[in-house]
Amino acid sequence: MSAPVTVIGTASPRPARSSAPAAPRERTWPLLLAVVVMIAVTATIGRAGLYEPGDDLGYYLGLSGALMMATLLLYPLRKRIRPLRRLGPMRHWFRYHMVFGIAGPILVLLHSTYRIESLNAGVALVSMALVAASGLIGRFLYVRIHHGLYGQRATLEEFQTLSGLANRAVRSQLFFVPEVEQALLSFERDALAPTAGPGRLIRFVLLGPRARLLYWRALPRIRTALRARAEARHWDRAKTRRRMRKSRKLVLGYLRAVLRVAQFNAFDRLFSLWHVVHVPLLYLLVLSAVIHVIAVHMY
């Protein structure tokens, strides 16, 4: 994926905005952290002895959570049944699916007071935990093959276009620090080289850590080179900081673009496999919840 080196001294026009998607800014760890905090808070409340699962409060907490999770079945129906497609854009449905998929289990955990007192309750609780964990995994995979969290499904060609734009930007704007430029281009060649067998899995797993290591190694070199240029050209501090910020964003955007191209097919396959697992788990959850509700009202 080579491109001719452009002359940095000339002010080239800004390229037209591409239809290629930008690197995803949605991160999974803040969501995971929020879920962990919610579980910790609700566990403290549930174990405080303020109510029991059979009390009015405990009962309605469980009922609210169960109804929320039951409505999750509307999301796949909205995608597959043609008349339902008139009921609003998919991004709103996806947002509701994600919010209810977290809030519903949290309410059920509050209902249970974090105790398992019967077999059917244990099966329902484990099923719910599996579905919730599967949903978080699905979100992680989803944003890597779509235009952001609520966008359309992307294609490999779009990411390749984005990577090509980043490649040309690196060649034209990092000329003053050639060791970083060469390290980035070498990383791209290695990341996009065809690999078969166990080497493909190893490369897939190590690409992210390698990209982060390369990024943090590049920053001090860029900073040193920019300071030398700033002294030679009599830049003020504000201009030097702007150039550093721009270079940092350039390197980060380039690495993200390369990663998305290199990992797209793998994430696409994983997302397809995830669908095979997630949907049956959702049906298992509904079945176990129905059995639990019947058992509660019978006994």
UniProtKB/TrEMBL annotation:
Protein name stated in the entry: Uncharacterized protein
The membrane spanning regions, by residue number, are 31-51, 57-75, 96-116, 122-143, 250-267, 273-296
Q: Where is this region: Disordered?
A: 1-22
- Compositionally biased intervals (Low complexity): 11-22
**UniProt keyword terms in alphabetical order:** Membrane, Transmembrane, Transmembrane helix
